[in-house]
Amino acid sequence: MAGLLAGLVGWPVAHSLSPALHRAWIAAAGLDADYVAFAVDPRHAPQAIAATPAFGLRGVNVTLPYKELALSLAGDASPTARRLGAANVLLVGPDGRLHADNTDGVGFLAALEGLPRDRSRPALILGAGGAARAAAFALIEDGAREIRVANRDAARAKRLAADVRGAGARAIAADWAERASAVLTADVGLLVNATPLGMNDQPQLDFDLANLPREAVVYDLLYRPRPTALVARARAAGLAALDGLAMLIAQARPSFELFFGRPPPEGVDLEAILAAKLGESAPA
Ligand code: NAP
Prior knowledge:
Layout: E1 4-10, H1 18-29, E2 33-39, H2 45-50, E3 59-62, H3 67-73, E4 76-77, H4 79-84, E5 89-92, E6 98-101, H5 104-112, E7 123-126, H6 130-141, E8 146-151, H7 154-166, E9 170-175, H8 182-185, E10 190-193, E11 217-220, H9 229-236, E12 240-242, H10 245-260, H11 270-281
Parallel strand pairs: 1-2, 1-3, 4-6, 7-8, 7-10, 8-9, 10-11, 11-12
Antiparallel strand pairs: 3-5, 5-6
Helix pairs in contact: 1-10, 5-6, 5-10
Bound molecules: NADP nicotinamide-adenine-dinucleotide phosphate.
């Protein structure tokens, strides 16, 4: 068995790219380490996740549906994880206790770097789940002054908007039916799809891009298929657009450093490695 072991817990995890991603970094760094995906049955999830230290793991990444559970099982948590109410990293401390963190917001912002974007314009986020929440708070830390949230469940959109106001930014909770209306979209600098709509096996996101200004950046947090239909439509309309693969890689960087005690090695073309894997697993 490898010297240092970390992993991923979720249900399901069979299609996760995280093992390929971390293993590419492990190999390039020449580490005696491994990263394994654990499909944790919901009937055993609290016991299994709490037992992370007992199995000799340095820590685990946590994906759906266990991000809230992971936070509740941790002995302590970073301010970011506490504010988001969810953890995507559990690190085993020297005392054997679990420390919770959340790197989704860091990854969300890092992936946006390099794209020309007017930060003074409002951002419109579709969805109000964990990814939307991480995106909203990351944008506020990045200086956003106004966040608009459109979500199928209106009460959830209102809760997120209230929390955005509590963090010092203006917020609008919009009806899902109004998501592409001119009043919501005509002045936005960033559109974020934080729903699964458009992912393989899911219905398409119904969103007319016509009202967006030419300067707007379209950010689809999905990466299956590549390009997503939203990214393809945005690019065809002349808008800057990116999918969620860069975010996936960027949110994994701090996890790798926490687990293996060093930053990921430079010079590994993970976008190419993961894009090739996505190509392999895409339905015919
Ligand atoms: P989540 O907490 O379960 O939230 C899902 C969100 O999508 C909710 O706002 C939900 O609305 C909405 N939604 C689901 N089905 C819908 C439908 N049929 N019509 C309209 N809205 C619908 O999930 P999450 O963690 O936020 O993740 C959201 C997406 O982001 C996922 O697809 C995930 O793959 C992606 N993501 C990507 C990365 C990355 O690194 N690229 C990281 C995190 C997440 P309701 O509140 O009305 O249910």
